[in-house]
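Hi there, hope your week has been kind to you so far. No rush at all, and the record is pasted right below.
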Amino acid sequence: MLKHLSENRVLIDLVWSYEPASHEPYYLDWLAHLRRTHRQLTGQSDEGEMVTGFCTKHSTLYEPFALWMKALYGDGIYYYEQAESCYFLIISHGVPVSGSDRLVSRRFWMKLKEQLKESPQYAELPLIQLTEQHIEAVIEGCTGHQQRQKKRRQMMIGALIAGGIVFLLVFMTLLKLFIKG
Protein backbone atom coordinates (compact mmCIF):
# COMPACT_ATOMS: atom_id res chain seq x y z
CA MET A 1 0.00 0.00 0.00
CA LEU A 2 2.64 2.52 1.04
CA LYS A 3 4.79 1.79 -2.00
CA HIS A 4 1.71 2.15 -4.24
CA LEU A 5 1.01 5.56 -2.69
CA SER A 6 4.57 6.81 -3.16
CA GLU A 7 4.62 5.61 -6.78
CA ASN A 8 1.57 7.79 -7.41
CA ARG A 9 3.07 10.81 -5.60
CA VAL A 10 0.80 10.66 -2.56
CA LEU A 11 2.48 11.80 0.66
CA ILE A 12 2.20 10.25 4.09
CA ASP A 13 4.17 11.00 7.24
CA LEU A 14 3.49 14.73 7.29
CA VAL A 15 3.87 16.83 10.42
CA TRP A 16 0.50 18.42 11.14
CA SER A 17 0.60 21.54 13.27
CA TYR A 18 -1.86 22.44 15.96
CA GLU A 19 -2.45 25.44 18.16
CA PRO A 20 -1.04 24.69 21.61
CA ALA A 21 -2.87 25.86 24.72
CA SER A 22 0.15 27.92 25.69
CA HIS A 23 2.74 29.27 23.31
CA GLU A 24 5.82 27.49 24.60
CA PRO A 25 9.04 28.94 23.15
CA TYR A 26 10.41 25.49 22.27
CA TYR A 27 7.32 24.67 20.24
CA LEU A 28 7.40 28.04 18.47
CA ASP A 29 11.10 27.60 17.64
CA TRP A 30 10.43 24.11 16.29
CA LEU A 31 7.52 25.42 14.20
CA ALA A 32 9.69 28.24 12.81
CA HIS A 33 12.33 25.67 11.87
CA LEU A 34 9.71 23.54 10.10
CA ARG A 35 8.49 26.55 8.13
CA ARG A 36 12.04 27.22 6.91
CA THR A 37 13.02 23.67 6.02
CA HIS A 38 9.79 22.00 4.90
CA ARG A 39 7.09 22.63 2.32
CA GLN A 40 3.81 23.83 3.79
CA LEU A 41 0.54 22.23 2.71
CA THR A 42 -2.67 23.88 3.83
CA GLY A 43 -6.28 22.87 4.03
CA GLN A 44 -9.39 23.79 5.99
CA SER A 45 -11.07 22.13 8.93
CA ASP A 46 -14.82 21.65 9.25
CA GLU A 47 -14.99 24.94 11.18
CA GLY A 48 -13.14 26.79 8.40
CA GLU A 49 -9.84 27.09 10.26
CA MET A 50 -6.56 26.67 8.40
CA VAL A 51 -4.81 23.32 8.82
CA THR A 52 -1.09 23.21 8.05
CA GLY A 53 1.01 20.17 7.27
CA PHE A 54 4.76 20.12 6.69
CA CYS A 55 6.57 17.70 4.39
CA THR A 56 10.14 17.19 3.26
CA LYS A 57 9.24 16.99 -0.46
CA HIS A 58 9.32 20.46 -1.97
CA SER A 59 7.71 19.54 -5.29
CA THR A 60 4.11 20.58 -5.91
CA LEU A 61 3.51 17.30 -7.73
CA TYR A 62 2.91 15.50 -4.42
CA GLU A 63 -0.49 15.34 -2.71
CA PRO A 64 -1.12 14.76 1.03
CA PHE A 65 -2.92 11.49 1.77
CA ALA A 66 -4.49 12.84 4.98
CA LEU A 67 -6.30 15.72 3.27
CA TRP A 68 -7.67 13.42 0.56
CA MET A 69 -8.91 10.96 3.20
CA LYS A 70 -10.58 13.85 5.02
CA ALA A 71 -12.23 15.07 1.83
CA LEU A 72 -13.39 11.63 0.68
CA TYR A 73 -14.23 9.82 3.92
CA GLY A 74 -14.40 12.36 6.75
CA ASP A 75 -13.50 11.84 10.38
CA GLY A 76 -12.19 8.53 11.65
CA ILE A 77 -9.22 6.51 12.78
CA TYR A 78 -7.75 4.92 9.67
CA TYR A 79 -5.10 2.23 9.78
CA TYR A 80 -3.30 -0.22 7.54
CA GLU A 81 -1.44 -3.14 9.07
CA GLN A 82 1.64 -4.67 7.48
CA ALA A 83 3.83 -7.53 8.69
CA GLU A 84 6.10 -5.49 10.97
CA SER A 85 4.53 -2.05 10.97
CA CYS A 86 1.25 -0.20 10.87
CA TYR A 87 0.24 3.10 9.28
CA PHE A 88 -2.38 5.13 11.14
CA LEU A 89 -4.16 8.41 10.57
CA ILE A 90 -6.60 10.13 12.91
CA ILE A 91 -8.94 12.77 11.52
CA SER A 92 -11.06 14.54 14.13
CA HIS A 93 -13.36 17.50 13.40
CA GLY A 94 -11.98 17.69 9.87
CA VAL A 95 -8.37 18.04 11.03
CA PRO A 96 -5.56 15.46 10.80
CA VAL A 97 -4.41 15.01 14.39
CA SER A 98 -0.83 16.01 15.08
CA GLY A 99 1.27 12.89 15.66
CA SER A 100 -0.83 10.68 13.42
CA ASP A 101 -0.24 10.13 9.67
CA ARG A 102 2.64 7.88 10.73
CA LEU A 103 4.13 4.49 10.18
CA VAL A 104 4.70 2.88 13.59
CA SER A 105 5.61 -0.55 14.92
CA ARG A 106 2.84 -3.10 15.18
CA ARG A 107 3.28 -3.37 18.94
CA PHE A 108 2.94 0.41 19.39
CA TRP A 109 -0.20 0.40 17.25
CA MET A 110 -1.85 -2.32 19.37
CA LYS A 111 -1.26 -0.30 22.55
CA LEU A 112 -2.42 2.91 20.90
CA LYS A 113 -5.58 1.27 19.56
CA GLU A 114 -6.55 0.18 23.08
CA GLN A 115 -5.96 3.67 24.45
CA LEU A 116 -7.90 5.35 21.64
CA LYS A 117 -10.99 3.25 22.45
CA GLU A 118 -10.86 4.47 26.06
CA SER A 119 -10.09 8.11 25.22
CA PRO A 120 -13.14 10.40 25.50
CA GLN A 121 -11.70 12.60 22.75
CA TYR A 122 -11.49 9.84 20.13
CA ALA A 123 -13.94 7.18 21.38
CA GLU A 124 -16.72 8.34 19.03
CA LEU A 125 -14.50 8.12 15.93
CA PRO A 126 -14.95 4.97 13.85
CA LEU A 127 -11.96 2.65 13.56
CA ILE A 128 -11.58 1.91 9.84
CA GLN A 129 -9.08 -0.45 8.27
CA LEU A 130 -7.83 0.94 4.95
CA THR A 131 -8.61 -1.23 1.95
CA GLU A 132 -7.56 -1.14 -1.69
CA GLN A 133 -10.80 0.74 -2.46
CA HIS A 134 -9.78 3.56 -0.10
CA ILE A 135 -6.30 3.71 -1.61
CA GLU A 136 -7.53 3.61 -5.21
CA ALA A 137 -10.10 6.36 -4.55
CA VAL A 138 -7.39 8.61 -3.10
CA ILE A 139 -4.98 7.84 -5.95
CA GLU A 140 -7.70 8.50 -8.52
CA GLY A 141 -8.53 11.86 -6.92
CA CYS A 142 -4.85 12.81 -6.69
CA THR A 143 -4.15 11.80 -10.27
CA GLY A 144 -7.07 13.88 -11.53
CA HIS A 145 -5.96 16.88 -9.49
CA GLN A 146 -2.36 16.50 -10.66
CA GLN A 147 -3.49 16.36 -14.30
CA ARG A 148 -5.55 19.54 -13.84
CA GLN A 149 -2.53 21.23 -12.23
CA LYS A 150 -0.29 20.10 -15.09
CA LYS A 151 -2.74 21.43 -17.69
CA ARG A 152 -2.97 24.73 -15.80
CA ARG A 153 0.84 25.01 -15.68
CA GLN A 154 1.05 24.31 -19.41
CA MET A 155 -1.55 27.00 -20.10
CA MET A 156 0.39 29.52 -18.00
CA ILE A 157 3.67 28.69 -19.74
CA GLY A 158 1.95 28.90 -23.14
CA ALA A 159 0.44 32.28 -22.24
CA LEU A 160 3.83 33.59 -21.08
CA ILE A 161 5.53 32.41 -24.28
CA ALA A 162 2.78 33.92 -26.44
CA GLY A 163 3.01 37.19 -24.49
CA GLY A 164 6.79 37.21 -24.94
CA ILE A 165 6.46 36.66 -28.68
CA VAL A 166 3.90 39.47 -28.99
CA PHE A 167 6.15 41.76 -26.95
CA LEU A 168 9.15 40.98 -29.16
CA LEU A 169 7.12 41.57 -32.34
CA VAL A 170 5.88 44.94 -31.07
CA PHE A 171 9.40 45.87 -29.95
CA MET A 172 10.87 44.87 -33.33
CA THR A 173 8.19 46.86 -35.18
CA LEU A 174 8.80 49.97 -33.07
CA LEU A 175 12.55 49.60 -33.45
CA LYS A 176 12.18 49.27 -37.21
CA LEU A 177 10.00 52.42 -37.33
CA PHE A 178 12.53 54.45 -35.32
CA ILE A 179 15.45 53.29 -37.45
CA LYS A 180 13.67 54.10 -40.74
CA GLY A 181 12.02 57.22 -39.36
